[in-house]
């Protein structure tokens, strides 16, 4: 089977409080959910009906078994998910203090985690080459052997060798706690950027990748590096996408924020769906924006990923154009 989306990188168990608006030390009860950005993106795309898979690693423990079960529940192919001896499945705690305070605490990830133990020689290169969209994140470059595996995967599908309708997406996902310096991250990003066709990041992430500047300057630098679509998230001003021939901005889709942590992953999965559907870039951006907004209005990440019907309903409610064939 050729996957429509194949992601690589982080997976974890997210532990979210059932008590909203209080500090973590005051939380009385929690729920557990599948987490980790590339895994969440695969789930989000699957919710839109796409054939998704993730390349990752867990511990050989009950939490690892739980993550396999959750991937299967969400119709994400888990054939490339295996366990690593002597390492535990990482757990991520967060406090939920709307509208904009969602601190994360990573447990079991340092000095290393199972998903940083993906090795180049373990990759199914045919699956990487054949996937219509291959999605990776900057965090996967922060440690060996994961770094080598990511580089090998990108080298296996050079930008010049992609067929029409194939994309290689890099989530610029910079997390400073996993890097010695921004310069180190920039150097590693530069190693794979020549094979990337779509780059997605916020102002800070774009600055790490290509330097400080206005959103347009950052997008232009990404395009100059060979990227075909540069997506720069503008915070309260929405999101911009730029190509060599067009520039589009999607205004925010206002919602009452409950938990902003999964919105970017929901955006990513919906963006993948829009690309694969062949919609105009402006419609892809609006659809992805609305998808992200829905998850921001909910408690969890993976479990909160919307269906096409939910996204279409929000777009129509807000007077936005619904892409033709969006229910397919």
Task: Provide a descriptive summary of the structure in words.
- The protein has 328 residues and is α/β, with parallel strands linked by helices.
- Helix content is 34%, strand content 20%.
- It is built from ten helices and 14 strands.
- The protein has helices spanning 37-47, 62-73, 125-130, 146-156, 182-192, 203-210, 215-224, 263-277, 281-296, 308-317, and strands at residues 5-8, 12-17, 30-35, 52-59, 76-77, 81-84, 91-94, 104-107, 133-137, 167-171, 198-202, 229-233, 239-242, 247-250.
- Strands 1, 4, 5, 6, 9, 10, 11, 12, 13 and 14 form a ten-stranded mixed β-sheet that branches. Strands 3-2-7-8 form a four-stranded mixed β-sheet.
- Strand 13 (239-242) and strand 14 (247-250) form a beta hairpin.
- Helix 8 (263-277) runs antiparallel to helix 9.
- The chain starts with a strand and ends in an 11-residue tail after the last helix.
- The mean pLDDT is 95.
